[in-house]
Design a protein that fits this description.
The chain has 161 residues and is mainly alpha-helical. Helix content is 59%, strand content 4%. The chain is built from 7 helices and 2 strands. Strands 1-2 form a two-stranded antiparallel ribbon. α6 (113-128) runs antiparallel to α7 (134-158).
Length: 161
């Protein structure tokens, strides 16, 4: 069964209506997002899990190759970006670090379509290792997918795969 909303068809695996309850937090609030992820410690665990996924999953080699051998700086930049985004401070992060779309380090790593998909798979795998609500995990992936897609279009127009 598919959920239909206007012209949009949502496949069952993406329909969250069965897991949303009255107690589900409204993630439009930075405070609620920060609470849902487990505070700054939860953000750091997520950044660690992301880097661990890049290191251990051969199918993510295309994205791992974009970063230096030592992921220490990237891990910190990713945690800073995620913390800023979760709190709702992305404009502040953008002012000091440039564009916010997946470019979470000062080197301005650019991603093509294949790399974008690998980055998102890595984030999904990292989220799946965390004790977070399914609604929050899906919220994060929707938001990051939108950002990634906006970046990919710009990159692919300039440099097709």
């Amino acid at each position: 069964m598919f959920f239909v909303m206007g012209d949009v068809v949502i496949p069952p695996e993406r329909d969250i209506s069965d897991i949303v309850t009255r107690g589900t937090l409204d993630f439009s609030s930075g405070e609620n997002r920060l609470s849902a992820v487990g505070g700054e410690a939860g953000i750091r665990k997520l950044a660690d899990a992301f880097c661990q996924c890049m290191e251990t999953h051969p199918e993510l080699a295309v994205i791992r190759a974009k970063y230096p051998d030592d992921l220490t700086d990237y891990r910190e930049a990713l945690a800073t970006f995620l913390l800023s985004w979760i709190r709702g401070e992305v404009p502040l992060y953008t002012k000091s670090n440039g564009r916010r779309y997946l470019n979470t380090n000062r080197r301005r790593v650019r991603l093509n379509s294949t790399e974008k998909e690998a980055w998102l798979r890595c984030m999904q795998q990292a989220l799946d290792t965390q004790p977070l609500s399914e609604v929050f995990k899906r919220y994060v992936m929707v938001q990051l997918t939108l950002s990634a897609e906006m970046t990919r279009k710009r990159q692919d127009e300039q440099h097709p795969d």
